Amino acid sequence: MTVTALMDYAAFIIHGFIPGLNGQSPGTFWMPPQASTLAPEVDWVFYLILWICIFFFVLIVALMTWFVLHYRKREGHAEEETAHHSMALELTWTIIPLILVVLIFYFGFKTYLRMKVAPANALEIYVIGQKWNWFFQYPNGHIDEDLHLPVDTPVQLIIRSEDVTHSLFIPAFRIKMDAVPGRYTRAWVRAREEGVFPVYCAEYCGTQHSDMLADAIVHEPGLYEVWLEKASNLLNTMTPVEAGQYLVNKRCSQCHSVDGTADVGPSFLGVWGREETLADGSTSVVEENYIRESILEPSVKIAAGYENVMPSFKGKLKEEEITAIIEYLKTLKKD
Amino acid sequence: MSDIVAYPGTAASPQAEGHTEDNYLTHSRGIMSWLITLDHKRIGVMYLISILAAFFLGGMMALLIRTELLTPGDTIVDADTYNKLFTLHGAVMIFLFIIPGIPAAMGNFVLPIMLGAKDVAFPRLNLTSYYLYVIGAVLAVVSIVVGGVDTGWTFYTPYSTTTMYWGVYWLTFGAFILGFSSIFTGLNFIVTIHKLRPPGMDWFKMPLFLWGLYGTSVIQILATPVLGITLLLLIVERALGIGIFDPSLGGDPVLYQHFFWFYSHPAVYIMILPAMGVISELVSVFSRKHIFGYTFIAYSSIAIALLSFLVWGHHMFTSGQSGLANMIFSLLTFSVSIPSAIKVFNWLATMYKGSIHLDTPMLYALSFIFLFGLGGLTGLFLGALATSVHLHDTYFIVAHFHYVMFGGTVIAFLGALHYWWPKITGRMYNEPLGRLSALIIFVGFNMTFFPQFVMGSKGMPRRYYHYADEFTFYHVFSSIGSYIMAIGFFLIAGYLLHSMFRGRKAPANPWGAATLEWKCSSPPPHHNFDEPPQAGDPYDFSDLVYDSAIGGYVSKQNPQPAG
């Protein structure tokens, strides 16, 4: 690391300890950007606790160091008898921390209440967690792989899971809520700046857990509606092959490569028309119905050498989208 | 002071002049004399060897994990292997090392001698407990052989009931068996402390290490059965398809989390209470000062043991649990911080105006106060609801629990190991190397785990195989720290092995401690004490004086027998 880089880093660290200096982006030493209205409130609680921690940590280490230096064993120094206890002193270091933790609880709870309850008339977006993709369903029924939302508008996220427990985590918004199978959970956000922010899965969900990513895209006023209109009709503006390529890239590429590399699932390169050996030893030719079945009922035919881990995409892909994927796979021929 | 009774140098004394060389190590010979021994000291040593093997295994996995994380993409293993590594690292470290570490290894050796007793109340149960531990450990190893487990040590459903890796049966059943080992040890310790205290030792004259073990034993007995039942239900659901946790069978996945944390949060205190007990002993002995605020420290152990049962819901703030439940669990969580704060300040007050001996065990005690202080304070971010939601399941959590469990319990375990090593083996170790390795581990530890706080608060989720480029610097720094720590641990292994064969013979009381185990010779004779000794104030050192001829402390009143 160069000297300049080190100095930049030092400035970054100093910056991070002073909440008043928080830039909007790219975040501070401690925190990611404050992209939601709740973020500054959460950070205020964070820095309050941080300073209480720094105070007590410095106090403890300073006392310890001072005692070690002054009372270390050496020639001419002997221990002195002191009181074995002191009710006044012990009550002091019981009661002061007690008051402080009650205060911390109070501020943490106060902000949490605002995080918990969305304003009325919030825009509702359904969030679906599934190994290993996030899906976002918009009021007009469009399902997308990224979270698009208008700036400065309250958005209620209604979250569920198709398989195991996942957790929707958007650091820049300071929100996290588990996607629990068999029930709905909620979180809400009001974005305060345009931009693109990472969306993670925070609850461990298997092989591709760390690839279960999406983007939270905050649109400037008026452009969210424009995007939604365009995205809902995207396939109409493309040839089926282009649309198929787009969909494979968005929804399948975590597990299926298009360059011949075996991943969690078989590569799509050269798959069309091949006689596939299945896990039970039988074979099946990859044609339209095979692909359609593999998308909607993936556990029926498992390619030999692979595990039965693919979730069903029933309801997540329309018939014409499946057709588009089939058309695209037809183009992926081995040279 | 007058109630300190120096052990009389009569023929009945193990330390008597001309006392034979017979000790618990030489008392009987042959492999069977160890395998079916009922001697708590030998069982303690067998535990010690076993848990150190587990620690080595878990540590190697940690190094592989840290090496994988040197780059944001694929580094040395594939994603599934990485997931199995962190699962087994967690399970091995928690179930096979930290939980039994201080109580079953150190406690087994020390507790009866501290009480002036010949053994624990139920020696056969003690041996059973050890073999249950071995069976549990073997099952854990089998789970690796049959393909591994990739659920994370928490075994969350429905992932654990649907994952393709069958090792989950073996590992959860292993943990189930280990639970019984833990319960039996706790039961044994509680009865031993109640029934076998020597004359002169009422409850509030017990060494604080015993209070720590007592608190832990209470939790082990009350909480562990819940884990056992939970894991059994998991196995039943997976094997027979009976819907308990899986919503597709009519179950509730959040119920599993409640059950699991109802055990696993108190289990955190199973791990830390004996560590706090060790630190109370070390700080007092090496400061040559009576412990400050004995009563507050003793009661705070019990307070922690009881309050620990009321806070499990703070692991589930983002699980969809109701806001009201979150509020209550947040408030109760803060209550646990108070007894811990009391202990830290009382340890500091104990050092005041002492004569602080910076021997290896004391360096670990100081290291504990620093690291546990940081670990405890960062818990405040996680108790507060607003910040906890953001930090949950990120590296901030990983850093926090390593500061508490490793910086706390493992560092205290190392302090205990160095403190009681002369008593266990009868040999002294290389002191300068001891201090050096304590320093290396301290530096390496902070390099490994401090950057994890920062990347966590910046949004790096835990259990990630791939990560965003912006976190590379922290991960590389952290991995380098882990290699430095590994050097410290190999150094310890080296000089401790050396000391067993070449170490200077240990005196009975090398540190000048006033608890009863130091009145036995090092190593202790088979029966510890031929007659129950009279116990005095465990923190009154005024009767002890250093004798440079033997390199240890002897009683002023009766200097003769301390051989």
Strand arrangement across the biggest beta sheet of chain B: 1-2
Could you give me the name of the CATH homologous superfamily of chain B? Cytochrome c oxidase-like, subunit I domain
* CATH C-level label of chain B: Mainly Alpha
- How many individual domains of chain B? 1
Which architecture of the largest domain in chain A does the CATH hierarchy give at level 2? Sandwich
The whole-angstrom Rg of chain B is 23 Å
Weakly predicted, low-confidence segments of chain A = 17-24
Net shape of chain A: elongated
Which fold name is given in CATH as the topology of the largest domain in chain A?
A: Immunoglobulin-like
CATH superfamily of the largest domain in chain A: Cupredoxins -  blue copper proteins
CATH class of the largest domain in chain A: Mainly Beta
Give the overall pLDDT of chain A as a whole number: 88
CATH topology of chain B: Cytochrome C Oxidase, Chain A
Instruction: Please bin the fraction of helical residues of chain B.
Output: 55-70%
Report the biggest beta sheet of chain B as strand number plus sense, adding barrel if it closes: 2 strands, antiparallel
What is the domain tally of chain A?
3
Count every helix of chain B, treating DSSP H or I runs of 4 or more residues as helices. Answer: 15
Strand content of chain B: under 5%
Binned, the helix content of chain A reads 25-40%
The side-by-side strand order for the widest beta sheet of chain A comes to 3-2-1-5-8
> What portion of residues of chain A belong to β-strands?
15-25%
